[in-house]
Design a protein that fits this description.
Largest sheet: 5 strands, antiparallel
Oligomer: single chain
Distance between the termini: 55 Å
Shape: elongated
Number of strands: 12
Strand content: 5-15%
Length: 811
């Protein structure tokens, strides 16, 4: 644009701060909305994301504070109160996360979980308390905001805030990865153990951390200085650590699951054994009562029956995921119920009819079969649980062995990651040293290019507008020394009247390479230079600057001014010549009027009086006298026709063209029909082929057809059968019309004279005419952007061609 471009304009900074400001505002809205949902008891506002657990009050408050802090820091010009508010928000969030971690690790109950929302009757303190992972995230986020305040050394604030932000980005990304794995492939693939209830907080922390990084990039000039090789090494190490942690977590989870499954299997076996024992007790009580008839043996029967029901219910709950066991429990309940009912009948028979009747029922009834079926079913349940227990024990042993083997593997992996990191860091430092050496060499080359450039060049500070560096060509061109240049600004080399334009352009600067623009510069001796400059933004010793290349165009401007003056003089000459041409046209029109009126009148007089003499005195004159008078009349009439043709030819250059679509075939047929007097008594064969439709003046084009066809009719007069052919040929998309005849023809060496005015190749006594017809044809065709020519052979006929190039042609 010009030599005033700034590296970081306020407009570009405001544009780059849109994302962190939007991220902070979005987080604040989500946190505030969740708090409002708790106060209004609105579940949809609490959850934010459908399907996730409600955001706990303390989490919502922390998110609100973090979002507000990020928004404060993202203001274009952060004032001191805004920075203080941001630091206070960070301290509060840091305290909130730290105290929550203390409650988890030390078993304290500081009551901070009820500061904002009092728990309802069915809520507990643990239900409102955030999980340790979320508390750690708040601690990291709080440290990040505090790091950007005045409380931390500027040397530590940028890397500390950047590192914490990157850590939070990884935490949020890992949570999202775990959720996506579970959504796509099932819970077994969620190797990181992330739950959908943590999705909202993960998204918010990812958003806040990304906004923090964008803020550091924009306002604090955060730059990733490690090269690609070193960065790749650290990324590989982090990925390996995450993979190792995920594998360890997965195997630990499997070990816990198998341990829990073992406990469950053992409890099922215990309950099944209790059912078996209690069922046996019921049978023993019934037998003792039948034998001894003592009612005391029946006193604990009801309690035992109730215990069996409880045990069966417990087994049913423990084996809810085992359809086989559930089916066996249904059968077992029915068998035990039937067995108890049969025992009641036996005991009733013992009371009413005595021992013999009861013994007979025991020996002959279904009791034995019911007992056998019950014991067999219980044995089947025990067998299956024993098999599952054995399988779970094997899995537990495998998980334990894997977990134990992962311990040394984790050590080796950590050592490997550390070794890789050191190796990549060493390689990166080596590459960095090589890059620095290459950069110094490049800087030396560019310095030489800068100093040896034949055109003036300089670098100036885009904030102060002062010169930072000037090459030798600028010193020679402008007359100032290097020291004088460095004590000046770019305003000092401008004429005073150009300063307002310079100030105006300072508010219109853009970043990047600009197009060339023209300015006026002032030399030390006061002489003005017309210059053309190109500027490019760069950083010069940590300061935003602009590199300017100057091209002196004073001589070119002077030449342009001279050319402009010559153009003005040429335009004046053209205008004068146009006026002269208009005057000449008016004189020509006056001449045409004079010819058409003043010359025709004497001709009519000569013709009229010659006719009168012939009519009145013809009988008194000798034959030779009458012939002379007739010759006078013929000459006068021919002179009239010649004057008419000449006037028609001159008017063709002045008549405007009224173009429209014209059917050339129809125009040719109509023109030939108008030649009826000339065709009378003759045998003429006319062939009209395919002709194009053109865009032109129909009246003038008809004159072309009339003249060409009239010529063909005239020059075939001596043929017994005249053959006239009209057609069109096409070549390279252009149509060429022609009129061909078998008449007298012409010698081709005189072809260039055919279209001249008054040019004739035949005597008047052979073929009449004025020699203007073909000149009219040429004038009409030329005005339509085409051309006309002829080919012929003496005694064999002629062909006239014409084109209408530039006209719209359609077949």
């Amino acid at each position: 644009m010009n030599d005033m471009n700034m590296a970081h304009s306020p407009r570009s900074m405001r544009r780059n701060l849109i994302f962190p400001l939007s991220a902070g505002a979005a987080a604040a809205l989500m946190g505030g909305g969740a708090l409002l949902g708790w106060w209004l008891n609105n579940e949809s506002l609490k959850s934010i994301v459908s399907g996730s657990s409600p955001l706990k009050p303390n989490i919502a408050a922390g998110i609100l504070l973090c979002g507000a802090a990020l928004a404060f820091l993202s203001l274009t010009r952060s004032s001191e109160p805004a920075q203080i508010c941001s630091a206070l928000s960070g301290i509060i969030v840091l305290a909130l996360g730290g105290l929550t971690l203390a409650e988890h690790f030390f078993g304290w109950n500081l009551g901070i979980d009820q500061w904002l929302i009092q728990p309802r009757a069915n809520d507990t303190t643990q239900m409102l308390r955030m999980v340790p992972a979320t508390a750690i995230c708040f601690v990291l986020m709080g440290f990040g905001f505090v790091a950007q305040s005045q409380l931390v050394s500027p040397r530590l604030s940028l890397p500390l805030a950047a590192g914490l932000s990157v850590m939070l980005v990884f935490v949020g990304a890992l949570t999202l990865v775990g959720f996506c794995l579970e959504t796509l492939f099932g819970s077994r693939w969620n190797l990181l153990g992330m739950k959908v209830s943590e999705l909202t907080a993960a998204v918010v922390f990812l958003l806040l951390a990304s906004g923090m990084l964008a803020l550091l990039l924009t306002k604090h000039g955060l730059v990733w200085s490690l090269n690609t090789l070193t960065t790749a090494g650290f990324v590989l190490g982090i990925v390996l650590m995450v993979v190792a942690a995920a594998i360890a977590f997965n195997h630990t989870r499997r070990m816990l699951e198998t341990t829990s499954s073992l406990s469950q299997r053992q409890e099922v076996l215990q309950k099944v054994q209790e059912v078996l024992t209690n069922t046996t007790d019921l049978l023993s009580h019934e037998r003792l009562y039948v034998i001894l008839g003592d009612e005391r043996f029946l006193s604990e029967r009801e309690q035992t029956r109730l215990q069996i029901t409880k045990d069966i219910l417990a087994v049913r709950n423990l084996t809810a995921d085992n359809s086989n066991q559930q089916r066996r429990l249904d059968q077992l309940e029915a068998l035990i119920a039937a067995r108890i009912d049969w025992e009641e009948k036996i005991m009733a028979a013992r009371r009413d009819r005595g021992f013999a009747a009861a013994s007979e029922m025991i020996g002959t009834g279904p009791g034995v079969k019911l007992s056998d079926d019950t014991f067999r079913l219980i044995q089947d349940m025990q067998d299956e649980e024993q098999a599952l227990l054995g399988h779970d024990r094997k899995q537990a042993e495998a998980a334990s062995l894997t977990a134990l083997s992962l311990l040394p593997l984790a050590v080796f992996l950590s050592m490997g990651i550390l070794s890789l990191g050191l190796s990549f860091l060493n390689a990166g430092l080596t590459e960095q040293k090589q890059t620095e050496q290459a950069l110094r060499a490049s800087e030396k080359r560019y310095r030489e290019l800068f100093e040896s450039n034949p055109n003036p060049m300089w670098i100036y500070d885009v904030k102060t507008l002062s010169f930072l560096a000037v090459n030798a060509a600028a010193v020679r061109q402008y007359g100032y020394s290097q020291e004088e240049f460095r004590a000046m600004t770019i305003q000092d080399i401008r004429p005073p009247e150009d300063i307002p334009a310079l100030v105006k352009n300072l508010s219109l600067v853009t970043k990047g390479l600009d197009g060339t623009t023209q300015w006026r510069h002032r030399r030390k001796d006061g002489a003005l230079l017309d210059v053309e400059i190109t500027s490019h933004d760069l950083m010069w010793l940590g300061r935003p600057a602009s590199l300017v290349l100057i091209n002196d165009i004073t001589a070119r401007k002077r030449a342009e001014d001279e050319v402009r003056q010559l153009n003005l003089e040429l335009e004046d000459r053209v205008e004068k010549r146009t006026m002269q041409l208009q005057a000449a046209n008016k004189e020509l029109e006056a001449f045409s009027y004079s010819v058409s009126h003043d010359l025709r009148s004497p001709l009519r007089t000569v013709d009229g009086f010659s006719q009168a003499v012939l009519e009145d005195y013809g009988t008194q004159l000798p034959e030779e006298g009458r012939r002379y008078l007739q010759t006078i009349r013929d000459g006068a009439q021919r002179m009239g026709v010649l004057i008419d043709d000449l006037l028609t030819f001159s008017r063709l250059s002045r008549l405007p063209l009224h173009k429209q679509d014209v059917d050339m075939a129809r125009l040719a047929r109509d023109s030939f029909a108008e030649l009826a007097p000339e065709k009378k008594g003759r045998k003429i064969e006319l062939k009209i082929g395919e002709l194009p439709k053109v865009h032109g003046d129909p009246a003038l084009l008809k004159q072309v057809w009339v003249n060409l066809l009239s010529n063909a009719v005239k020059y075939t007069r001596k043929r017994e059968t005249a053959i006239i052919e009209v057609g069109c040929t096409r070549e390279n998309g252009s149509a060429t019309c022609f009129v061909s005849d078998n008449g007298a023809g012409f010698d081709m060496q005189y072809a260039d004279k055919l279209f001249g005015v008054f040019q004739r190749l035949h005597r008047t006594d052979e073929f009449e005419g004025t020699g203007v017809g073909l000149a009219i044809v040429q004038r009409v065709i030329n005005r339509h952007g085409g051309r006309v020519w002829a080919e012929g052979t003496e005694g064999k006929g002629a062909t006239f061609y014409f084109t209408l190039e530039g006209a719209k042609q359609e077949v």
